[in-house]
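Consider what follows.

. . .
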Amino acid sequence: MAPADASQAGLLAPATAAKATTLNIPAATISFDPPPPVIRRVSTNANLVPIAPVTFAHALEAIDKGIAFLKSTQSGNGAWMEGIAAAPNTASAASAASAASAASAASAASAASAASAASAASATNAASAAVTALVVRAFAQRGLSIQGDAALERAATRLVDLVMGKNGFQPDASGGMATYVASCTAMGLAALQESKYEKTLAAALLWIRESQWDESEGIAPTQDWYGGAGYGSKGRPDLSNTQLMLDALHESNATAKDASVERAVIFLTRCQNLKSTNAAAWAQSGSNDGGMVYTPANDGESFASEMAGEGRAGEKMPAGTRALRSYASMTYAAYKSMLFAGLSKNDPRVLAAKAWIENNFTFSENPGLGQQGYYYYIHAAARAMLACGNDEVTDTAGTKHNWREELIDSIIVRQRANGSWQNPETRWMEGEPDLATVFAVLALEEAIKPVRVSQ
């Protein structure tokens, strides 16, 4: 999630697909592997996880300390981060600067102020709902149940209250954070495996499917919005929202032949710095490194390009050289998404993403963005590594890394005395301990899910 930015208040105009770029349709996927299985609980047996028993014990201890912290910050009605607003990443730096200049007139400033207040008010419940759903999933994966844990029962009840309105499922009244809320809700309720939440879970999954950009919204497969999900049902699509959509579908056991999954693969392909499969101009002039950018929509954006001083859309690069930089959080997000979609591990897109990970392997930072978005990154990385089924990663120097051991060590060293985590780089709300902590706990849980057969 992205924090509200006063410099862009009121400037996030409704998305318009008129800006979509027309491209050749990527070749259809012809080789599939079974998607990785959904594992809903952490192991309680160190022998079922390929790490040292002492590391397993440390991971469990850190998870339990994190859960204890989250219980201590739960509100009286069962939620987290109430009263904290979030805003979507829907405006590029260039468009924001242009809009800010135009807003210098008093009337525009007044309109921006009013829009900001309305957006903040509607986004407050959205941020709370999304984080509460993440916590529900974290608690459930640790083996807590609504029958045996009062905090989890209150959280699940409050989550349903937040997303179910008079007219049915309503993840965010403003629409701005709706995909995040719907996807996190689906994953949280799926983790509970409780029949009493099946109606809300089904409503969330239906909302997710209906909000994907496709022909029903007038978007053709030749347009770069196609198959993606954005901030709300009308927001321009991006990889962050799309990977959450695919996470939710995977947790509900969607197959590779699912129409929503097939459409999403087209969007994933267009996010990749891979000339052989991505016809976008920025990809054809780019690094061809197999990594991923934030979105291909409207001719593409990358936060790594912004970080490098080249502009979020690469608009500050010399004429004729525009390209977009790959970065880790989006590359891991897409890598697991392709595996969840059933793409073969020998598919060139999967192999290229895997190579990027090997070339940039580290859990000390979010490669391409430094410490920004670190906890979002570490959670995506843990899920991707579990999905690929490999216990080790071999880097470009030929060094083998037990990814679980290194990920666990990297997370635990950052845990604070009270059991929480917090990112000094506060972008995307990671300065909020509740959000950073639930991402850290979820990442640790991925690392100790059972993958070995019990003897």
About this structure: Residues 85 and 121 are 7 Å apart (CA to CA). Residues 106-141 form the longest helix (36 residues).
